[in-house]
Write a structure and sequence with these properties.
The chain is an alpha/beta fold and 616 residues long. Helices cover 50% and strands 12% of the residues. The protein contains 23 helices and 14 strands. The chain starts with a helix and ends in a 6-residue tail after the last helix.
Length: 616
């Protein structure tokens, strides 16, 4: 029965074109079928016909005169009908009576026109505009649906995502395995009296795969999936957000077992009372309703609430207490093996060269998250297609990495000879220091081709392994590498340029963290002076709370300057001793524009022999 019903074609919806066609049809019907043989005459001709006695009768209105002539039509054998525009003529009635023409008239009351154009027409126009605007925004924008939830319900066949599509975050997948088991076999937990966590909060940097992981949980469990962003709850109308929260939970109760996923939870769940300018009443009311719904919801029905955020420090403490989001799962940046697994997932539909080693590609991308790696594979495929290659190889991946990390290459940007010399010596200074200090990553490439917005050249290093801790010596060597470009300009040209701006910012930031956060200053001791929350998922960024005196602040500034000055003198000594090697590197870089890691190693060996053993 239902199969036959599906075969029946439903009528199409009416559109404005149907109305236009219908009106045009009725106009043609009126002109050619209902009013056949109407002769349009001028008023002077009408007066002549009256004097000649040809007019049989006429009907006078406010605007036209319509009547019959004594002539007979051959086809219909009826009197000819005429029509003419009425002219203000006071002698017309006398002439009609003199000739004996039958005439009549009617009085048209203006009330209908006044009512139509004053009330009906403006209301009709407003209604059309209202319908047009809300149609553009969609059916969910109508007045009666403001309180309806905007959550998108994904059926199992729409999701088609499982844990096989999620790689590089095995620990997070293991944490969520218990949720899947409960959704599949809830009796196993109920028999022992256990209660599943009501809410699961996914924490992680942007692009680590929090939303994908939530969809994979629903896909593995085979249950419906409600997806809604935290910002979609809050509206300009008071009470709408709370109504949407209630409606969402009501829908989820009817679809149980299911998963409610609230993405970007910090947009809805910001801590109350922390804004010095005053809170947003509608947002706080929506948050209160969410807290109430989570309290009164029975998780044993099979409804799991999941949230995702990269700003956990912004969330209201009431959301994080047991009984609400009582399980927090960290979706961290993938390590080397995780990045390799993610690359394999995204490279399934891409034709790769047989000898391509994804492990080597993963080793060149420390700090990349899942979204970055997906973009990397796509960029490499686009580059291979642009070069008319049949498969994607290592050169395309290396170029894609450079493009993501340093920006788009700008080979057509013209620089004068002096600027080229400065850039070449600047980048050679970075590379030479990186090859001279003991705790630096190997240099992968030096380039003086401009990239991105302001980079006139760049030096890329390839980490040998993932690092989670940094020693004081390693941080000092990083500062030294950053200062190498500025010092090389000073030694070669006895002049400095603006090209080291970004290098100085990074070097100052490292020195500041060494003194204020890591306790690496002998004078300041093992004290931390950074009291701010860890923002943007443990990356820093909020303004710290200053809880020390002005004298201490001055001492901190002096210690930061001391670290920079001592490292600067160290770099100056190295580059002064290897000045000829620096010049040789810069000369080669100006000729080739790009020096790869293997070439750099050979070049340094040759320069070392040429300059009497003064090499790295």
């Amino acid at each position: 029965m239902f199969e036959n019903f599906k075969k029946i074609k439903m009528p199409k919806k009416f559109s404005a074109w149907h109305i236009v066609i219908a009106v045009g049809f009725f106009i043609l019907l009126q002109l050619y079928l209902l009013n056949p043989g109407v002769r349009d005459v001028s008023y002077s001709e009408f007066k002549r016909l009256v004097r000649e006695g040809t007019v049989l009768e006429c009907h006078i209105t406010n605007t036209v005169i319509r009547g019959k002539l004594r002539e007979i039509e051959r086809e219909t054998r009826k009197n000819v009908v005429f029509i003419t525009a009425r002219v203000d003529d006071p002698d017309l009635v006398k002439e009609l009576e003199f000739v004996g023409v039958k005439y009549s008239g009617n009085y048209e009351s203006p009330w209908f026109k006044t009512f139509f154009f004053t009330w009906v027409m403006p209301l009709l126009i407003l209604f059309i505009i209202w319908r047009f605007i809300f149609k553009r925004f969609g059916p969910a924008s109508s007045i009666m649906s403001f309180g309806k939830s905007k959550g998108r319900l994904y059926a199992q066949e729409d999701l088609n995502i499982t844990f096989d599509d999620v790689a590089g975050i095995d620990e997070a997948k293991e944490e969520l395995q218990e949720i899947i088991e409960f959704l599949k076999t809830p009796e196993k937990f109920r028999a022992l009296g256990g209660k599943i966590p009501k809410g699961v909060l996914l924490l992680g940097a942007p692009g680590t795969g929090k939303t994908l992981l939530a969809k994979a949980v629903a896909g593995e469990a085979g249950v419906p999936f409600f997806n809604m962003s935290g910002s979609e709850f809050v509206e300009m109308f008071v009470g709408v957000g709370a109504a949407r929260v209630r409606d969402l939970f009501n829908q989820a109760d009817q679809k149980a077992p299911c998963i409610i996923f609230i993405d970007e939870l910090d947009a809805l769940g910001k801590a109350r009372g922390v804004n010095p300018m005053g809170g947003h009443d509608e947002r706080e009311q929506t948050l209160n309703q969410l807290l109430v719904e989570m309290d009164g919801f029975d998780s044993n029905k099979g409804v799991i609430i999941m949230g995702a955020t990269n700003r956990p420090e912004m969330l209201d403490p009431a959301l994080l207490r047991p009984g609400r989001f009582d399980r927090q799962v960290v979706v961290d940046r993938p390590d080397l093996h995780g990045r390799e697994a993610i690359l394999k997932v995204h490279a399934k539909g891409v034709k790769l060269e047989k000898d391509l080693d994804l492990h080597s590609v993963a080793a060149m991308t420390p700090g990349f998250v899942g979204a970055d790696l997906a973009n990397l594979v796509n960029e490499a495929a686009l580059l291979a297609a642009r070069r008319n290659k049949k498969a994607v190889g290592m050169p395309e991946f290396e170029e894609a990495i450079d493009r993501i990390m340093a920006g788009l290459e700008k080979k057509k940007r013209l620089m004068n000879k002096k600027e080229k010399e400065i850039v070449a010596h600047h980048e050679s200074g970075h590379a030479l220091i990186a090859c001279s200090v003991p705790h630096a990553d190997p240099v992968r490439k030096i380039s003086m081709i401009p990239r991105g917005i302001g980079a006139l050249g760049y030096t890329l290093q390839k980490p040998t392994e993932d690092r989670y801790l940094m020693t004081k010596a390693e941080l000092l060597d990083r500062i030294a590498i950053l200062l190498g470009g500025r010092v090389s300009e000073e030694i070669i040209f006895n002049e400095i340029s603006t090209g080291a701006q970004n290098d100085l910012e990074k070097a100052t930031e490292i020195a500041k963290m060494m003194v204020k956060e890591y306790g690496m200053s002998e004078k300041m001791g093992l004290v931390t002076f950074e009291q701010g929350d860890r923002p943007l998922f443990l990356g820093g960024g909020f303004a710290a709370k200053k809880e020390y005196s002005e004298e201490t602040a001055r001492e901190i500034d002096l210690e930061i300057k001391k670290i920079i000055d001592e490292t600067l003198q160290r770099v100056r000594n190295i580059l002064t001793e290897k000045k000829e090697i620096l010049k040789g590197m810069a000369h080669t870089l100006m000729e080739k524009e790009v020096i790869e890691g293997a070439e750099l190693k050979k070049l340094l060996e040759e320069l070392h022999k040429t300059n009497g053993g003064k090499g790295p």
